[in-house]
Specification:
The complex is a heterodimer of chains A (282) and B (253). With 282 residues, chain A is mainly α. Chain A is built from nine helices and no strands. In chain A, 73% of the residues lie in helices and 0% in strands. Classes of the chains: A mainly alpha (282), B alpha/beta (253).
Amino acid sequence: MTGLSIRLPRAKKNRIQAGIALLGVVFFSAVFIYTFLYLRHDPVLTDLDRRLLGMSLQHPLGTDQLGRDVLTRLLLGGQQTLGYSLLALMVALFIGVPFGIISGYKRGLVDRVFMRIGDAFLSFPDTIVAIVLSGLMGPGIGNLVLAIVLVKWVSYARLVRSTVLSESQKDYVLIARINGLSSRKIMRKHLLPHVVGHVLVLASLDLGKIILLISAFSYIGLGAQPPMPEWGAMLNDSRPYFQSRPELMIYPGLAIVSVVLLTNMLGDYLRDRFDVKKEVQQ
Amino acid sequence: MSLLVVENLMKTFPGGKTAVNNLSFHLGKGECLGLVGESGCGKSTLARCLLRIESVDSGSIYLNDIAIERMNERKLYPHRKKIQIVFQNPTAALNPKLKIKDSIIEPYEQYRKELTLSHFSYTSKEAFIGQLLEAVELPSHIANQYPHELSGGQKQRVTIARSISIEPDLIVLDEPTASLDVISQGAVLNLLTELRETLHLSYLFISHDLAAVNQMSQRIMVMKDGEIVDQFNQEQLFSADRHPYTKELISIF
């Protein structure tokens, strides 16, 4: 987050941020790969004899109210949360970026039609769309992802469009046209590279928001359905035991906070990174 | 035989401003035709019309006796490689995300199949770019640099290298020296003159700088409010029967 290290010089701040973000990414990927290769406990198998156990060698983070290993569920829950967030983001990017580039480059009628479609989607807040979809099609993580995609792609399309609008008026795009390059080639070769930076920054900042949204909806029961482990759902499951076993809520809570923080730092770093050229020119 | 013939060309913008008004002229092979006028007189619009990045309202543009003003993009394609343009601002004319070599090679890669070069020869990408950079008197190592690492004069030379890479018939020079300092201006003008002779190019040299135009061109046209008000050969610049507007332009310099 920007406020975290605001007093440090920019370059130093950058390095530290990049370091932490990178470490975090490496750590989380290592953990997730590890869980794929080596799963000691069934994450959904209930064993009421072993419920609410404390830390032990066999269960490093103890067991939950149904006797399931908390570490296993936490790791698999992370895969769910992050995996679905990334999925939603990717789909939104795959729709939004081409939409934005075509809209900004072609202008005129195409642009107007595309942007009015976007406005229509944007007029609903993502939470409302998610709730409505759950109401219509039943709760489930698939519907949640769909709701996120429906709302998020527009912001990418708009961001990309505005960059392309200004960039496509530059002389080098005219020269590419004079040299007979097809629209598709111009969009791919000249315009796409200009939006990648902006899109990456927005995407990494959005990732945090999407993780929060998926966790929040799972928390109120509209996202991941039991017995599937998911951080938000785990938070909710552990609520009744907060007085006796507060760590059951703290673990998934910490996991959500740290991942969101990491994605934000990564976003900040990427933003600075892609600004470098502008600094040089100034 | 004329390379480029323009007849009664009209271009009016949606706001009602007539940028090019009933304009006719011709440009011979190997000729450098100067076009002088103050800012906003329609010089650049004319250039954009000739390159068909701006549509024309009426009139004709003949390139090698073929009318190109109404061709669709597909029919126009084989003719596009015969005209190149050098813009005023080299920074905007180079994609900041591409290395110099990738910017220079763009036209050649596009027309590679239908192109036969006479002056340059393509053996490898590196060698070809080396030839082009040498032709515009730039060191070969800048091929791997990005535009922001070069000076304005160097960048303009790069755009010139790009425009000569496919050996076009005509290069439209749209104020090629306007954004350069005086020393670079002179050097670039000299380079352009040399290139015209070695590569047998024709230029339409557009500028508000009468001195530069007079140095470069055999024939000069003076444009005012979208119309050509005066036309003369290089040596007739100071003759008494010049148009009052031309005299006014001379008196500024």
